[in-house]
Amino acid sequence: MTSPSERYAAWSAERRIQGTELDRFRDRFAFDLDPFQVTACTALQDGRSVLVAAPTGAGKTVVGEFAVQLALAGGRKVFYTAPIKALSNQKHGELVEWLGAEKVGLLTGDVSVRPEAPVVVMTTEVLRNMLYAGSSALDGLGFVVMDEVHYLADRLRGPVWEEVIIQLPPTVQLVSLSATVSNAEEFGAWLDEVRGSTAVIVSEARPVPLWQHVLVGDELMDLFVDDAGRAVVSQGPGARGERRVNPDLERLGSITARIGDGPGGRGGRGHDGHGGARQGGGRGRDPRGRRGTQGRHRRRGRGPRDDGPRQDGPRGGAPRHGGGEERSARAPGRPLRRPDVLAVLDEAGLLPAICFIFSRAGCDGAVRQCTMAHVRLTSPAERSRIRAVLDERLARIPFEDEDVLAIPAFRRAAENGYAAHHAGMLPLLKSVVEELFAAGLIKAVFATETLALGINMPARSVVLEKLSKYNGVEHADLTPGEFTQLTGRAGRRGIDVEGHAVVIAGPGFDADAVASLASRRTYPLRSAFRPTYNMAVNLLDRYDVRAARESLEMSFAQFQADRSVVGLARRARELEETEAAYREALDCERGDIREYAALLEQISEREKTLSRERAAADRDRARSTLAGLRRGDVLALPGGKRQGFAVVVGIDKAVLGGPEVLLLGTEGRLRTLRPGDVPAPPAVVDTMRVPAPDRLSKPRTRKDTAAALRQRLAGRHENPRESVRRAGGRTPSTAATDERLQQLRETLRAHPCHACPDLDAHLRWISRARSVEKERASVLRRVEGRTSSLARRFDQVCALLLELGYLEGHGEDLRPTAGGLRLRRLFSDRDLLIAECLEQGLWTDLDPAALAAMASAMCYEARREGADSAELPADEPFVRALEQTLRAAERLAAAERRHGLDATAAPDPGIAAVMHRWALGSHYAVAVGSTALPAGDFVRQCRQVIDLLDQLVPVPGIGPTARAAIDRVRRGFVSQEVDL
């Protein structure tokens, strides 16, 4: 029962809304708006900007849609921005369904539909470009909705969000929609500072209850229970604070069950759902149906099932959490395979489900496993509907490309009710999966985490196979924010009455760690903003240097840096006091212990110097040895980055820092060897005949050559290092004969502190004092670096642009030159390098196909490093232009380092040959050739190439070629993907 004051406040708020635009807006919905939605909409109606931070699926977009209604009611424009094109396309469709096609436009870089409409959906980059260009489309703009605004933490694309927020006219109301972040108030304080009055509305409540489960073997167990052992909701309506981790899970200890990776599967074979996998129920038991008995859900049957629910144990009695017999019954059995996982979910009524697998290969492998296990989750009627959708949507794909795109396998899996969804897939196929899943026809999707970015794919449950993923550098544990983002896809408002998150227990499973992830639902938002070359010339085209610096200092990055300085300064004072205390404690009655410690440091430094000189001598000897090698020499490699035996199949003596030797190992892999890759020169132990270099591109030839090498080495039992040692080994150490080192050691032995009985203790205190001293110096550098750090970087960028001729003037009066104005229109991570190539005319001799290939080299970044060299187009002008471009990149990198800036990445021609063949008219299968470039990556690279070429169209000299290149790249399913 609420208090009288609370009832009066609610009545007063409702009275304020009656008869307003918000009152008319909420009539659209069959449900009452949540309090956070009403609060945010009211603030918008009062003329304020808003930041809304709420969980996935909570209904944040309702606030954005109210901004649309306010704009239309007031005769103003509204721009709705999203971080990725897929979200933009989806939002465009939703707004068209609401308002009609004539009122809604779409701008995503490669698509322009009704750009003059009062409501325009666009990517954030498009809006940023409009702002810098002073586009007339900004006239009459009243609102900008920035969906998924927490994306500004993204290292590559995040800065664009801050540019937009800072540069938007002050009359525009900003609607920022974010996932729940732990520093929403800090972000809101920054918005209030740069945008004016901003209401911060934070909601941590899910509108749909979320249940957390753990799949142990074939048992579905609850993660959280109450004191009576009954399952409790972890988030959303019905969630209780009085809960604990299921004791059954805590007693399991180290779980050995894991998901199999083979193609087959138990239990899924012959499994035919016949429409049983329905939202809100299905044939199996409700997963909470018997939590009052054993706190778990056990699946007994395997293989085909009948249509009735199974009864597993008593329905009454007290919950049981211990006992040897109970524990033994729960011990994990044989590894559970993905088809079995789907069977468990289907039996428990938890389909449709999204199964997150953090690798593309894993997603594709899961689909193959289910196919080979004959899993079928659809009824004949559903399969007929799926087939009709596939026939219509996939008719665009040329027959010649169907096999290489694995269309038959995709069709078979989709008709049976499951599919993969990841960035390596053809976007058309991903779109079909989304459509079928949203329609309830596909029951299970195996997806990478990119699916959690906000695309509306309603799922009753979400399954996590692992709680770690590869982040591009290492395998790291999921953060609470990532866990929340993924599990937030389960249970969508208006579709499900509840959602379910299932973690599959694997080796070393820790129930408390999972509970911690499931309980902590927030993560901090950290700015990735930094000045770029393009940003600098755009700012200086509009402002003087002082105003440009002020603009940068308005960024969220500087806002956070300035706030952090307070804590850093306090830490510096603490360290200074600690250092002073250590200095007072350092007292040895035998002599000056600091002097003794300094001698130790000098000895250590001298030993390191001698070691470096020895390593340099080894590299020189290795360089000489490599230069004298011939094709067919069999080498013993001593270790380091390369070890074992290998045969020389190629030598390039012109490589900088080389020579570079191409080797074929006994396992049949090609690898390169440079002087610094081995600790000592390799030894030639034999010779053999090797195939011509062009034949080694074939796997079969490499395999046969490796077999011949192993046969050649048969009977040779010595270790490769022993062969190297007999051939000369490493350069002898000079430590024992170095006069300076011996003198230092004599001085150390003669020092009075050398015989101190407490010497070890004194040295430990010295080490601690110096550690504190180093930390304090580091903190002071961080304080100095963070104060106006962005402005200093901006000055470094401007100094380089002045040197290269993109800016002119001096002091506070800098302005772009003609070259700077061209750079102003280049939006790329390699913007300055592209501008340099254009200024030097390096690409003027290229035809359209070669220019498309060059554009791919400026856009492409390999997902992982490979040993083999990139295949280059058989086009002499391209090869010549690439060499010139690489030299330009080296010169630019040297100039950047002189100015204290990070070097721009050199061009990567990894798919230049693929893009060249595609631009010449080859089918996808022919264009990709042996590179095995996934279709999704190929289309994405084509889109990036088109975007860059479009930026080159206004450039004199190559504009017509760029326009022709766009036409050659934008064809086939590359162009079909942008159809609406």
TrEMBL record:
Residues 233-335, 711-736 are annotated as: Disordered. Pfam families: DEAD, DSHCT, SH3_HelY. Transmembrane segments: none annotated. Keywords: ATP-binding, Coiled coil, Helicase, Hydrolase, Nucleotide-binding. Residues 41-199 form the Helicase ATP-binding domain. The keyword ATP-binding applies. The keyword Coiled coil applies. Residues 340-541 form the Helicase C-terminal domain. One of its GO terms (cellular component) is Ski complex. It comes from the Bacteria. Residues 240-251, 303-313, 715-725 have a biased composition (Basic and acidic residues). Residues 290-302 have a biased composition (Basic residues). One of its GO terms (biological process) is nuclear-transcribed mRNA catabolic process, 3'-5' exonucleolytic nonsense-mediated decay. InterPro entries: DEAD/DEAH_box_helicase_dom (IPR011545), Helicase_ATP-bd (IPR014001), Helicase_C-like (IPR001650), P-loop_NTPase (IPR027417), RNA-DNA_Helicase (IPR050699), SH3_HelY (IPR058621), Ski2/MTR4_C (IPR012961). GO terms for molecular function: ATP binding; helicase activity; hydrolase activity; nucleic acid binding. Residues 593-620 form a coiled coil. This is Putative helicase. It comes from Brachybacterium nesterenkovii.
